Amino acid sequence: MPKTPALWPAPTASEAVDATVHVPGSKSVTNRALVLAALASEPGWLRRPLRSRDTLLMAEALRAMGIEIEEGVGPDGTGEAWRVLPAGLRGPATVDVGNAGTVMRFLPPVAALADGAVRFDGDPRAYERPLHGVIDALRVLGARIDDDGRGALPLTVHGSGALDGGPVEIDASSSSQFVSALLLSAPRFNQGVEVRHTGSTLPSMPHIRMTVDMLRAVGAQVDTPESGGEPNVWRVTPGALLGRDLTIEPDLSNAQPFLAAALVTGGRVLIPDWPARTTQPGDRLREIFTEMGGSCELTDYGLVLTGSGAIHGVDVDLGDVGELTPGIAAVAALADSPSTLRGVAHLRLHETDRLAALTKEINELGGDVTETADGLHIRPRPLHGGTFRTYDDHRMATAGAIIGLAVAGVQIENVATTAKTLPDFPGLWTGMLGV
Ligand SMILES: O=C(O)C1=C[C@@H](OP(=O)(O)O)[C@@H](O)[C@H](O)C1
Ligand SMILES: C=C(OP(=O)(O)O)C(=O)O
Question: From ligand 2's centre to the CA of 309, what distance in Å?
Answer without folding.
Answer: 31
